[in-house]
Amino acid sequence: xxxxxxxxxxxxxLWDDLSAFDAVDIQASRKFLLEEICxxxxxxxxxxxxxxxxxxxxxxxxxxxxxPRSLFTLNPCEFTSEAxxxxxxxxxxxxxxxxxxxxxxxxxxxxxxxxxxxxTPEWFEGPSYLRxxxxxxxxxxxxxxxxxxxxxxxxxxxxxSFEREPFSREDQALIFHALRGLRWFYRHQLLGExxxxxxxxxxxTEQLVLKGLLLGLTEKRIAGQYNQSPHxxxxxxxxxxxxxxxxxxxxxxxxxxGKGLETNNNP
Length: 267
Prior knowledge:
Mean pLDDT: 89
Structural class: alpha+beta
Number of helices: 12
Largest sheet: 5 strands, antiparallel
Shape: globular
Number of strands: 5
Helix content: 40-55%
């Protein structure tokens, strides 16, 4: 489907603006991306979910080894965290709903799907829609599945409230184009959280220390910035190195310049 010149201009400006962010500013750049695309398609909220594929022996797991490992919601409401935690728990137990299993079937391919393409008509009357959409004022959604490596993907959802009409094919095409050319960005995002390359996701404090390391700050300066003792900061640095499987700052920084997500060290 064709995209108008004005929309293309907004997308290209978005890409240019994203490239101006420092590679370690993962939260700020992620928030900016979601806010800009929400504005383009009149979405009121968005979710960003980092997923990894654990060991899978071709058994009965309907998730085929895929599990969510991180979540960022652009505009969380009072019940968002509880509802999404419940949905994640169902996935961890291998009990996802049909929208998730249909999405998993397409893992490894870049896709942008309307909610009605992932669900059956009956699903919209069932408990999953009521609990995870209607209760959160999510009338309709578009979900993007973005492979970053063989064992790491991003799921990005854009949501409209019940005050709006459902998404159109034009909205779907715009999101497809806006998200398609940003592989470098997704790679830096997952690296910054430790999703898909580290032995375990980084804690929020470790993410702050990692940012300081990648900016070239000394451990003493990092400690001063975040009101830590030098000993505490050094312990964080050692845990970060261990999680990424590196032994030096230069090896850590090389992940951002090389192919850090090609080798999988998932938990």
